[in-house]
Specification:
mainly alpha, Multidrug-efflux Transporter Regulator, Chain: A, Domain 2, 5 helices, 5% strand
Length: 119
């Protein structure tokens, strides 16, 4: 679901059944108001609500939030693009691969430019 490379800087998810919004905020590196906003934007994200409308997230919710965070902050997707990607749109997967190829080519061209400037 989430590539291991995107998960390095985030803490390990404890073996609990439910997490509060504060705990999820720390586990995912996202502020609580952002989590509440994402609930409105991503229909897959539905924490359990109990007494006084308190949110309780399950492990799958935490993994989903980490995936959303990765798509938005690391891969540069928009909210709409991330939403489509999570629904399994293959065209978006092709776009991600294209972006990765462009980044790789850019890096190689910058290395060539450094070599040319050093001569």
């Amino acid at each position: 679901m989430l590539e291991p490379g995107n998960n390095d800087e985030l803490p390990v998810i404890p073996g609990k059944r439910y997490f509060t919004i504060g705990e999820v905020s720390e586990l995912c590196g996202v502020k609580p108001h952002v989590l509440r906003y994402w609930e409105q934007e991503f229909p897959q994200l539905k924490p359990v609500k109990r007494r006084g409308n308190r949110r309780y997230y399950q492990r799958r919710d935490v993994l989903l939030i980490r995936q959303i965070r990765s798509l938005l902050y690391e891969e540069g997707f928009t909210i709409g693009g991330a939403r489509q990607r999570l629904t399994g749109d293959d065209a978006k997967e092709d776009l991600t691969q294209s972006v990765q190829i462009v980044r790789q080519i850019r890096t190689e061209l910058e290395e060539i430019l450094k070599i040319l400037r050093s001569k």
